[in-house]
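Sample 3 of the quickstart, ligand FE2/S2 (inorganic) cluster:
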Amino acid sequence: MATYLIIILGIAGLIGGLALTGVGVAALMHHRRRREAAPTPAVPKITLEGKGEFAVEPGVLLNTLWEHLPDAACQAGECGGCKLRLLSGEVAWIRDPVTEVDRSTHILACSCEARGSLRCAPV
Ligand code: FES
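Result:
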């Protein structure tokens, strides 16, 4: 009698284990499908005329464009060596420039962060 009871409990345990494994696999598949379906956030781009298009790095625009702006010397809004003409897009000024800049048409790559994709031209 005890042998039958042990066999029945063993079979019940096996069935329960299989059921739990099935639930775990289903949950894993559901999580994986949700992750795959999530949209990838668009990375803003900066187009620098005559140079190319680049994915915007975090922080000021000079982080992205430093190798294309060899006259950018101060990184503090003083020298004007990173001045660009803004053709389209929006920026946020993170510091007030010392050098003279018409903010309605120009930006300083060392003092501005992108608010989306931009098009600029070297000055
Ligand atoms: S690097 Fe000098 S003003 Fe931007």
